Amino acid sequence: ASIPLATERLLREQPELSGGLALQIGFGAGLVYGAQVVRLP
Q: What pTM did the predictor assign?
């Protein structure tokens, strides 16, 4: 749940980044990981 919270905070503090691309990477227990590229709203 920390990735969406961090993204929201980033856009609130730096609105000029809206519309740009972001690489989001997450990992968890058991060597589980995932990544995605998203366009910021």
A: 0.69
How far apart (Å, rounded) are the C-alpha atoms in residues 32 and 24? 14
Domain boundaries, the chain: 2-39
Q: What is the pLDDT along the chain (41 residues), one digit of tens a residue?
A: 788 999 999 999 999 999 999 999 999 988 999 999 999 99
Q: Is the dihedral of CA 14, 12, 36, 21 positive or negative?
A: negative
User: What is the C-alpha to C-alpha distance for residues 14 and 26, in angstroms, rounded to an integer?
Assistant: 22
CB 4 within 8 A of CB 11: no
| Separation of alpha carbons 19 and 14, rounded Å | 12
